[in-house]
Write a structure and sequence with these properties.
- The complex is a heterodimer.
- Chain A has 13 helices and 18 strands.
- By secondary structure, chain A is an alpha+beta fold.
- Chain A folds into three domains: 72 residues, ATP-grasp fold, A domain (Dna Ligase, domain 1, 2-Layer Sandwich); 131 residues, D-amino Acid Aminotransferase, Chain A, domain 1; 146 residues, 3-Layer(aba) Sandwich (Rossmann fold), CATH 3.40.50.261.
- In chain A, a hairpin with a 2-residue loop joins strand 4 and strand 5.
- In chain A, helix 2 packs antiparallel against helix 3, helix 5 crosses helix 6 and helix 10 packs across helix 11.
- The two termini of chain A are 39 Å apart.
- By secondary structure, chain B is of the alpha/beta class.
- Chain B has two domains: 111 residues, NAD(P)-binding Rossmann-like Domain (Rossmann fold, 3-Layer(aba) Sandwich); 152 residues, Rossmann fold.
- Chain B is built from nine helices and 14 strands.
- Chain B has a seven-stranded mixed beta sheet, with helices on both faces.
- In chain B, strand 1, helix 1 and strand 2 form a beta-alpha-beta unit.
- In chain B, helix 5 packs across helix 9.
- The longest helix of chain B is centred in the N-terminal third of the chain and has 13 residues.
- At the A-B interface, helix 9 of A face helix 4 and helix 5 of B.
C-alpha cells in the first residue's frame, strides 16, 4: 500500500520528523483558507501516487491565498499521467538552500533494511544511482540490532554534513528507521530533505507499507482508507473486492491458472504463440467450485476478453471442482465464449468427464492449449 | 551448511491441528516421511493421524528425537513458531505459511543464518527427496526418483516441469521450493552449493520469476565456477508489467529491476540454457545428459 504524500507526512509527524506547515484540501476555497492560515507563500501539491510529479506539472506555487485558490482550481479534477487529482496539499513554501535524500528500504539481496543517504536530493534515487552511484551512501541494517545512532551519524557525515546539521540529520534517519520497522515499510523516503534557514525539513515524504502486514495497521487503514486501492485499475478493484488475485493487461485472451508461477508461465506461452493476454488471474491453491465460478464469470462478463484459457495443474486443487465451477459460470452468466481448458492432476478423469458432457474439450499440454486459444481468439 | 532431508529425517509439524496442517501430515506420512510429533499451542494431548500433539516444541523434543520442522501456522503467529523451532535448534525449518510480514521474515532469517540453520521459505511448497522424504505440500505423483535437482521460486510451475522430467525418463533427485516472498531464507546460491556436492544430482533446473535479483546472483555464482554441473533455467513473467504484483508477494518488477529479460540475459551469459516454454526444460536436459 502506497500512502499519499500528506498521509505519509502525518505518519512522519507522529515520529517527530519535521514537516512543513500545511493541510489537505479538496476544494479551491479550502485551499485558499489554508493558505490564509499559513500567512506566507505556499506550494499547492497534487496528491497522486506517482513519482516525478513536479515535472508533470503537479506542483504549483502561490504568493497569496487568491493564487492558492487558482492553483487548486487548476489541479483539482485534472489528469496527471492519467490519474485524476482529487486532493491537493497546501503547505508553506520553503526557502531551500540544498536538497538531500534519506531513505530506508527493504533490500531483497541482503535480506534486511538498507539505510540510504545522498547529497543529491530532489531527483529520483534511481536517477542518482544511474548517474553518480558513488554519491549514494548505503548501510545494511542488522535486523536483530536495528540502526544505531553512531551508524546514522557515519552515514550523514559521508554526504558532507557537519556539526549541528549532521546531528539533526542523523536523528531524523534514526527516527525514519524506527518508523520503517514499526510501520512495516517496504520503502520510506524523505526526498528532498530540505536544508532551510530554519533547519532540516522533510519537503516530500514517501511511505509504502508491506501489504502482508496491513492486518497490524488497522488504524492506518481507517485513517487512509482510499490509498489501499490507489494503484489499481477499476477492474482490479472489483476483482480485489471479490477476493480474486487479478492483474489487468491490455490483450484479449483471458487467462486463469492455479499458482502464481504457472499462471505467469501461461501468459508467457500465450504471448509466445502470438496471443495477447487480457489478464493474470491466479486461483491459488485448492480453489472450490464457487471460487472457480466467480473467476470464470469475471472473465466471461469482461467485454475485452474474446477467448479464455484455463490452465490447471491439480495438486491440492481438484479438477472436478474446477470443472463444476466452469460449467456453473457458463450457465449462470449465459455468456458463450471460446474456451480452452488444460487440466491435469487430482481427479482429472472426473473433471474431464464433466467438461466433455458440457461440450468443453480438455487438452493435456499447456503449449498445445495456448496455441489453440490464440487461434480461437484470432478467428472471431 | 545447507541441510535438506532424507529417509532418516525426523520431523515435527508445527500447526498440525489446522486444516492444512492435518491434511498434509497425512499426505507426508503416506509418502513415508517420519513425522514423530506435532505442535499446536493449547491442543497438547491430541492425536492427529496417529501423531502425538504437544503444546510446545520443547515438550516434543523431551519425548522424541526430532531433526526438522515444517510450519503450517497462520501468518500472524508464524514468526513466533519459527523462533520456537530456532530455539530448539531444528534444521531445516520449512515455512509453508504465505503472507508473513517482511519485517518478521527479516528477523528470523537473520537469526537462522547466524546459527547456520537452513530456513526454506516462507511461502514455499517445501522440499522433497524423491522416494525418501517429502517435507512439503507438493503432489507426490509428478516426481520419480532420478538424476535432476530442481530449485524453484514457484510451486505449480515446479510440478509442471517435474512432470515433464519424470515422463521423459530422467526423474528427480531432490527438489526444493525457495518460496514466493520478497525475502526468503534459502536462495538459489545456497541450494546450488548443496546440489554441487550431492552425488545423486547430475544436473539442476532453476525455475525463477520476475522480482529481485536472486537469479542474477545465481548466474554470477555459476559463471564464477561455483556450480559446475549442467544447468537449465526457466523464468516466468516475460509478459509482466512493472509495478504490479503477479500473485506472489515477491513477483514484482520495481522500476527497471527484476525483469525476466535481465534474468534470462544473466543466465545465458553464465552458459545456462534458458527454456522458452516449460516443456522445453526436459528436452534440453535430455540432450545435455545424453
Amino acid at each position: 500500500m502506497r500512502l499519499l504524500e500528506w498521509e505519509a507526512k502525518e505518519v512522519f509527524r507522529d515520529y517527530g520528523i519535521p514537516i512543513p506547515r500545511g493541510r489537505i484540501a479538496s476544494t479551491p476555497s479550502e485551499a485558499r483558507l489554508i493558505a490564509k492560515e499559513i500567512g506566507k507563500p505556499v506550494a499547492v501539491k497534487a496528491q497522486i501516487p506517482i513519482g516525478g510529479r513536479g515535472k508533470a506539472g503537479g506542483i504549483l506555487f502561490a504568493e497569496n491565498p487568491e493564487e492558492a485558490e487558482e492553483a487548486a482550481e487548476k489541479l483539482l479534477g485534472s489528469l496527471i499521467q492519467g490519474v485524476e487529482v482529487k486532493q491537493v496539499l497546501v503547505e508553506e513554501r520553503l526557502s531551500i538552500e540544498r536538497e538531500l535524500y534519506l531513505g530506508v528500504v527493504v533490500d531483497r539481496s541482503s535480506r534486511a533494511y538498507t539505510a540510504l543517504a545522498t547529497s543529491e536530493g530532489g531527483v529520483e534515487i534511481e536517477e542518482v544511482a544511474a548517474r553518480t552511484p558513488e554519491k549514494i551512501i548505503r548501510l545494511t541494517v542488522d535486523p536483530l540490532r536495528g540502526l544505531l545512532p553512531h551508524e546514522a551519524r557515519w552515514i550523514v557525515k559521508q554526504i558532507g554534513l557537519e556539526g549541528r546539521q549532521m546531528l539533526t540529520a542523523a536523528d531524523i534517519l534514526v527516527k525514519l528507521y524506527r518508523l520503517a520497522v514499526e510501520m512495516d515499510a517496504e520503502l520510506t523516503e524523505i526526498n528532498p530533505l530540505a536544508v532551510t534557514p530554519d533547519g532540516l525539513i522533510a519537503a516530500d515524504a514517501r511511505l509504502n507499507i508491506d501489504d502482508n502486514a496491513l492486518w497490524r495497521h488497522r488504524d492506518l487503514l481507517e485513517r487512509f482508507s482510499e490509498s489501499e486501492l490507489l494503484d489499481l485499475t477499476g477492474k482490479e478493484r472489483k476483482a480485489r473486492k471479490l477476493g480474486l488475485i487479478y492483474v489487468e493487461l491490455d490483450g484479449d485472451i483471458g487467462i486463469i491458472g492455479n499458482g502464481a508461477g504457472l499462471t505467469m508461465a501461461t501468459l508467457d506461452t500465450v504471448q509466445l504463440y502470438g496471443g495477447k493476454p487480457a489478464n493474470f488471474l491466479d486461483l491459488g491453491g485448492g480453489a472450490p467450485a464457487d471460487r472457480v465460478e466467480m473467476a470464470v464469470s469475471f472473465l466471461l462478463t469482461d467485454p475485452k476478453v474474446r477467448a479464455i484459457f484455463i490452465n490447471i495443474l491439480g495438486g491440492i486443487t481438484r479438477c472436478d471442482e474446477v470443472a463444476r465451477g466452469i460449467i456453473a459460470a457458463r450457465e449462470k452468466t449465459g455468456v458463450e465464449k471460446p474456451m480452452v481448458v488444460r487440466m491435469i492432476g487430482t481427479r482429472e478423469e472426473e473433471g474431464r468427464r464433466l467438461l466433455e458432457e458440457a461440450g468443453i474439450h480438455c487438452l493435456d499440454s499447456m503449449e498445445e492449449a495456448a496455441e489453440r486459444v490464440v487461434s480461437l481468439a484470432g478467428r472471431r | 551448511m545447507v541441510r535438506f532431508v532424507d529417509a532418516e529425517t525426523r520431523v515435527v509439524v508445527q500447526g498440525i491441528t489446522g486444516r492444512q496442517g492435518s491434511f498434509h501430515t497425512k499426505l507426508m506420512l503416506d509418502y513415508g516421511t517420519k513425522i514423530v510429533a506435532g505442535v499446536t499451542p493449547g491442543k497438547g494431548g491430541a492425536i492427529v493421524e496417529g501423531v502425538p500433539v504437544y503444546d510446545t516444541v520443547a515438550e516434543a523434543l523431551d519425548r522424541h528425537r526430532v531433526d526438522a520442522s515444517i510450519i503450517f501456522v497462520p501468518a500472524p503467529y508464524a514468526s513466533d513458531a519459527v523462533h520456537e523451532a530456532l530455539d530448539a535448534g531444528l534444521d531445516p525449518i520449512v515455512v509453508i505459511t504465505e503472507g508473513i510480514p517482511i519485517r518478521d521474515t527479516m528477523k528470523f532469517v537473520a537469526r537462522a543464518r547466524r546459527s547456520d540453520i537452513t530456513i526454506i521459505g516462507p511461502n514455499t511448497p517445501g522440499v522433497i527427496k524423491v522416494g525418501e522424504c517429502k517435507l512439503g505440500i507438493m503432489p507426490a505423483r509428478v516426481f520419480t526418483r532420478g538424476r535432476v535437482g530442481i530449485i524453484s521460486r514457484s510451486g505449480t510451475l515446479t510440478y509442471e516441469i517435474a512432470d515433464h522430467i519424470s515422463r521423459i525418463g530422467l526423474g528427480e533427485s531432490t527438489c526444493v521450493g525457495l518460496g514466493g516472498d520478497p525475502i526468503t531464507g534459502l536462495d538459489f546460491i545456497d541450494a546450488l552449493k548443496w546440489f554441487e556436492d550431492d552425488p545423486q544430482t547430475e544436473a539442476v533446473v532453476l525455475i525463477g520469476e520476475i522480482g529481485g535479483d536472486a537469479e542474477e546472483r545465481a548466474a554470477e555464482f555459476i559463471a564464477d565456477g561455483g556450480f559446475t554441473k549442467p544447468a537449465v533455467a526457466y523464468i516466468a513473467g516475460r509478459t509482466a508489467i512493472p509495478g504490479k504484483r503477479m500473485g506472489h508477494a515477491g513477483a514484482i518488477i520495481q522500476g527497471e529491476r527484476g525483469t525476466a529479460r535481465s534474468k534470462i540475459e544473466a543466465l545465458e551469459a553464465a552458459d545456462v540454457s534458458v527454456a522458452e516454454r516449460p516443456s522445453d526444460v526436459a528436452r534440453i536436459l535430455k540432450k545435455l545428459l545424453s
